[in-house]
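Subgroup meeting minutes
Present: P.N., E.W., G.H.
Scribe: E.W.

1. P.N. recapped why we're keeping a running log of single-chain structure predictions: easier to compare across weeks, and new members can see raw inputs and outputs side by side.
2. G.H. added today's entry (365 aa).
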Amino acid sequence: MKKIILLLLVVVAAAQLKAQTGKTQNVIVITLDGFRWQELYRGADSALINSKFTEDKKDMTKKYWAATAEERRKLLLPFIWSVVAQNGQLYGDRDLGNHDEVANPYHFSYPGYNEIFTGFPDVRMNTNDPIINPNQNVLEFLNKQKGFENKVAVFSSWERFPQILNVNRSGLLVNAGFMDFTAADANGRLKYLNELQHKAPSYLSDSTRIDFMTYEFGKEYLKQYKPKVLYIAFDETDDMAHEGNYEFYLDRTRQEDGYINELWQYLQSDPQYKNKTTLIITCDHGRGDVPLEKWRDHGADVLHSEQTWFAVIGPDTPALGIIKTPTTTYHKQLAQTIANLLGFDFKANANHEVGNAIGSVTGNK
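Output recorded in log:
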């Protein structure tokens, strides 16, 4: 019995030592709603450029077309392919045999975001309506940990995140849709953004904010309040795809890559974040691809819309580039991966199913 107790103490001590020696002290998560793995890895699709879904075919060809997939994807996502691919990891390149998927059976937004942050593809989360999520999420778990209290924040274009993250229970700071940022000590820039978001032209729904405003809120909050965990949720890639506007879908993608680049440059210039921050970029679901018109759609009845991707860069993540191993990762694994990067065990404390961490991300194969 004494030997067993001693062994357990050694295991616990080793786990604590590993958590203490991890370099990640902050995590930034960014999602591009409904962005396809096909464009991430292949760049612009010539069939879609030359279809009814692209109005200015000449301009799109000039901006995004090149002879090889490697050239095309770098034109579309220069930050991801010049920085993350060189210094981080990318998952879900099915052309190379690596798969990334959602585990939930629905393949649309609320179930997708629930899966990412709770680690639980709960079949009850089967609507985009404003139902209150009963599942604990990793962001609220982190917000309760010592040193992380009130250091977790969310800024989203889509208005549904207060319900997805259950703000009444979790106590998380979630600024979604056209919500104003109302902290009494907010700086002048944040107060101006409150005013600006109601005046800026909007081409989305009456309750969904344009991604530019969401990004500006998130960036300014980061600069003033220095959170340890920040989540920014973009929406326009999904909206443009549903509209069947491939031109705007590509343009919004490159614009959001630029936002992420700017944010990363700031992180690498600030002593709190430089070489201490892991950045995770992903999506909430895939889209169809057969027949061509199905690129606009996703859902349980849309073939291949479970196919997703994610990218990660940070001080604890080996620079492996595109993951080429014939394995499958699931978005239900991201919650525990985020917690592990920060030295915590969400799975042991969630009171519901949680997928295992992705060891190749955290440095534990």
